[in-house]
Amino acid sequence: MAIYAVDFDNTLAVTRFPEIVGPKAKVVAAVKMLKANGHKIILWTSRAGKDLKDAVEWCTEQGIIFDAVNEPLPEQMDRWGE
Questions:
Q1: Domain boundaries, the chain
Q2: How many angstroms separate the CA atoms of 8 and 53, rounded?
Q3: 52: closest CA among 36, 68, 40, 34?
Q4: Which of 47, 35, 60 minimizes the C-alpha distance to 9?
Q5: Rounded-to-integer distance, Cα 7 and Cα 47, Å
Q6: Distance between CA 81 and CA 60 in Å, rounded?
């Protein structure tokens, strides 16, 4: 199992910030495949507030469920002694 951190704007989605134009289909498919294969996925983006909420909802609609958003996973914190 690996942990992947993925950006949103112009990585998962084509955007004209804050507008979400559409998916980057190959990237969305790759992230979904990683998750289906047991890897952990973190959304790591500079979006905040409503813009972050919109991005997470958009990803959920695409079938992407994150293990964390803009923060490390508990097992990473344990490993780093935080």
A1: 3-80
A2: 12
A3: 68
A4: 47
A5: 10
A6: 31
Query: Residue 82: what pLDDT?
Result: 62
Q: Tokens 């190959």, residue?
A: 26
Q: Tens of pLDDT along 25-55?
A: 999 999 999 999 999 999 999 999 999 999 9
What is the assigned CATH class of domain 3-80?
alpha beta
| DSSP labels, 11-59 | TTEEEETTEEEEE-HHHHHHHHHHHHTT-EEEE--S--HHHHHHHHHHH
Nearest C-alpha neighbor of 68 from the set 28, 39, 30, 26 = 39
- The helix (run of H) or strand (run of E) holding residue 72 is none
Answer whether 66's CB lies under 8 Å from 56's CB: yes
Please state the pTM of the whole predicted model: 0.89
